[in-house]
Amino acid sequence: MGGAKKSRRTQPERPECPWQFVHVWQWFWDILNGCANGMGPATIGWLDLQAWRAITGERPEPWEVRLLFRLSVLRASIEGEENRKKANAPGKP
Fold it and tell me: 2 and 19 in contact (C-beta within 8 Å)?
């Protein structure tokens, strides 16, 4: 069944996550791996969060939802900047 394989995002090298936020960090990567890519880095949206909640049964607190969205925007910003640097690297056609 030769369909295209979806690449799974991997967690980058990073400092240790404070234990109080480990569950949110794991949720972040779980949700992000279900997000569709468009023309730029994927971000978590309300529909992504709603689908994840329906599948997992998790019920994040409002502050956890805000943190998930903030992490998503920060990661997309960093990834976008890295992509721009690669695209503008010397010797790139």
Answer: no
To which residue do tokens 């690449």 refer?
7
Give the number of domains in the chain.
Answer: 1
Task: Give a yes or no: residue 55 inside a domain.
Answer: yes
Establish if 27 belongs to a structural domain. yes
For residues 75 and 79, what is the distance between their CA atoms, to the nearest angstrom? 6
Q: What is the DSSP string of 12-45?
A: PP-PPPPGGGHHHHHHHHHHHTTSPP-SS-----
Could you tell me if residue 74 is inside a domain? Answer: yes
Name the pTM for this structure.
Answer: 0.73
Flag whether pLDDT at 53 surpasses 80: yes
